[in-house]
Amino acid sequence: MHDIKENYILKLKSGQPVSYNFLSYTHNVNQLTHSLVHDILAEKDMLYLSSIIAAFMTEVINNAVKANLKRAFFEKNMVEITDPDDYNRLMEKFRQEAVERMSDYIPHMKEIGLRVKVTMKKTEKWFGISVANNSGMTAEELDRVKLRMDKAREINSIEEIFAEISDFSEGAGLGLIMNIMLLKTSGIGIDNFSLQSNGKITEASLKIPFSISKPEEVKKIQNEIIKNVQSIPVFPESINRVIQLCDNPKSTIEEVSGVIERDIALTADILKLANSGGFITASRVNSISKAVNIVGFKTLKQMAMASASQKIMNEHFKIYAGFWEEAYKCALYSKLLADEFKMGKESDTMFLGGLLRDLGKIILHVITPKILKKINEESGSSFSTATLEEVTLGISHNQVGADIAGKWNFSEELIQMIQYHHFPLGSGDQFKKAVSIIHLADLFVDIENRKKTYKNADVEASKLFNFQSYSEIKKIHENVMRRHKEIQDKST
């Protein structure tokens, strides 16, 4: 896989097109596709587009695979897809049976030669991607697509987008509109996307210009976000001193305890965290020296950073109801998942990553409270809050949170946990496991809030932890919930 990717990258950078074919959107295809896009965007310093292109590509490729599956399903049932009566009769059965049991139809798709082909090409001015499947669209399907593309061109607000949701029964409906909105807000532009079919081949093509300009409304929001991020203070000297001492192997418990105890508020926060169940569960801790002795310097550093982050955000922004309560649940879930997957001392870093993974939402809530509220209400759809934010604001809470973490000089691992917890594949190879932990913890919290299902588990995370079915993910979730309840019961 690595050799194939490197060969393709060399060809792309030399101006040669590359292509690859597949039957279904497997983990390897997903990884290859996003890795190639990531490397080209990185070369052009355009990685801010990575999550947008990832969402776009996932939707387009899934639609191409689904179109081929539909063709195979109709052929296997010996029904003519161009017959309106037969089409409507079988479509409900297709959604209920074929989509849920795609693997049953793979042999037939292979037998009749149905494939999806991805082609990429890089020029001096743009990067082009096309996704073609050898199932032509019917005239009715083409009319529906044209109608939705025309509708998408007219939509300019989140309210208009969600007003359309209930109108669409097939995947290409809302997904197509969301993709076009992503192109609008990113600055790539609608005119750089096309979807065509000649009755035999259907091809979706996208050109990403290396010089793009975002809409003025999006620029205005992003400038406001930048101002708010810049206004956030850096960590106070007392916190920085604690961090320095914790990073120094020659530091003593007495030195570190002395610095913490001179800050009454920090002392209270550390003791509260130490007894919350997130870090210590065995016995009650009533002194800083005891806390340091039990948890060690690395964990104490995480506690100090958690305390400082929460205090700064609380003092400078109006935090919306339930934010920290949900953040602490995700933090403890992240630590418990790290324990579950035997990540050792890394589990305390996971706690901080889970606690701060939605840090950017605080800023977005200040700037666009009504839009963020609507996004959170609608995030039970097929799209993550990050994608909905990209569509409406041109930036996601992931990126805003990563910018804040960068200002506070967080480690690259923590920054990537925050930036990619909705998209683990986008993170660096050395961080994928940690990022996937935060992704799963965040997913479990959303499931409990009835915003998501186990089907929303990221492909990369599922592959990393060798999940073979949604029931296996559910079992892990149930274990985490049980252990979380035990810890909560002990700490009350």
Model description:
It is a single chain. With 492 residues, this protein is an alpha+beta fold. The chain folds into 2 domains: 2-213, Histidine kinase-like ATPase, C-terminal domain (Heat Shock Protein 90, 2-Layer Sandwich), CATH 3.30.565.10; 219-491, Hypothetical protein af1432. It contains 23 helices and 5 strands. Strands 1-2-3-5-4 form a 5-stranded antiparallel sheet. Helix 8 packs across helix 18 (385-393), helix 14 crosses helix 21 and helix 17 (369-378) runs antiparallel to helix 18 (385-393). It starts with a helix and ends with a helix.
Question: Can I get a quick summary?
Answer:
The chain is an alpha+beta fold and 492 residues long.
Primary descriptors:
single chain, 492 residues, alpha+beta, Heat Shock Protein 90, Hypothetical protein af1432, 2 domains, 5-stranded antiparallel beta sheet, 23 helices, 64% helix, elongated
Determine the CATH topology of the largest domain.
Hypothetical protein af1432
CATH architecture of the largest domain: Orthogonal Bundle
Cα end-to-end separation: 51 Å
Q: Find the count of extended strands (DSSP E, 2+ residues).
A: 5
Query: Quick one: CATH superfamily of the largest domain?
Result: Hypothetical protein af1432
Query: Over the alpha carbons, how many angstroms does the gyration radius reach?
Result: 24 Å
Main sheet: strands, sense, barrel: 5 strands, antiparallel
Give the spatial strand order of the biggest sheet.
Answer: 1-2-3-5-4
Return the average pLDDT rounded to an integer.
85
Residue share in helix: 55-70%
* Strand fraction: 5-15%
- Helix and strand composition category: alpha+beta
Stretches with pLDDT under 50, minimum 5 residues = 168-172
Q: Shape from CA axes? A: elongated
SSE order in H/E notation?
HEHHHHEEHHHEEHHHHHHHHHHHHHHH
Number of helices: 23
